[in-house]
Amino acid sequence: MNVNKATIVGRLTRDPEVRTTNAGQSVTSFGLATNRTWKGNDGEKKEETEFHNIVLWGRLAEIAGQYLTKGQECYIDGRLQTRTYTGKDGVERRATEIVGENMQMGSRAGGGAPGGSTSAPRAASQAAPAAAAAAPVAASQIPEEEIPTINLEEEEEVKIEDVPF
Fold first, then answer.
1. Which residues lie below 8 Å from residue 58, measured CB to CB, with a gap of 6+?
2. Which domain holds residue 126?
3. Which residue from 31, 54, 67, 137 lies 20 to 30 Å from 81 (Cα-Cα)?
């Protein structure tokens, strides 16, 4: 049996970049940073940061492009994919990415709630053309609902038992 599964919780390192393929499908890419802390043999606290490239497709890509911002917490569940491409200098390169299949938005940088009124979504002109063509929905038309969020500041280490999904 083979398994290709990646599940990470981290913070966006940059605003999502939304593009549309020639076939008209939306694709969004962004960076996500995850931290790991531990005590070394000398008893000192050590920290390591990993940076991950995330790719989302379809409606999930449009949602991420509209609502996610740099510094925001995010849960991504998906698969690892390595692709080969030729750089501008003619050298063949490889890039390993996490292709997200599920996403949950966490609190925004600065502690705001996701989708809350503390910060408006980016302009529709920055979103995919298909999303811009859709009828806009006013924030007052969206029913208020308690959305579980992930707050990485509360604990030093995220435990799988504490993840609410």
1. 25, 26
2. 6-162
3. 67
Instruction: Please check whether residue 25 lies inside any domain of the structure.
Output: yes
Any domain includes 1: no
**Residue-level pLDDT at 106:** 87
d(CA 108, CA 11) in angstroms, rounded, equals: 9
Asked if 113 and 105 touch (Cβ cutoff 8 Å), the reply is: no
The answer to whether residue 112 sits within a structural domain is yes
The answer to whether 30 and 105 have CB atoms below 8 angstroms apart is: no
**pLDDT digit string (tens) for 55-70?**
999 999 999 999 999 9
Query: Could you tell me the CATH number of the domain that includes residue 83?
Result: 2.40.50.140
Asked whether the beta carbons of 116 and 132 are under 8 A apart, the reply is: no
Could you give the percent of the chain with pLDDT greater than 90? Answer: 61
Say if CB 80 and CB 100 are below 8 A apart: no
Which is it for strands 6-12 and 73-86: parallel, antiparallel or unpaired? antiparallel
What six digits make up the tokens of 13?
A: 């390192």
Three-class secondary structure of residue 46 per DSSP: strand
Burial of 30 (0-12, 13-18, 19+ CB in 10 A): buried
The pLDDT value given to residue 31: 96
Domain count for the chain: 1
As separate numbers, helices (DSSP H) first and strands (DSSP E) second, the chain gives 2, 6
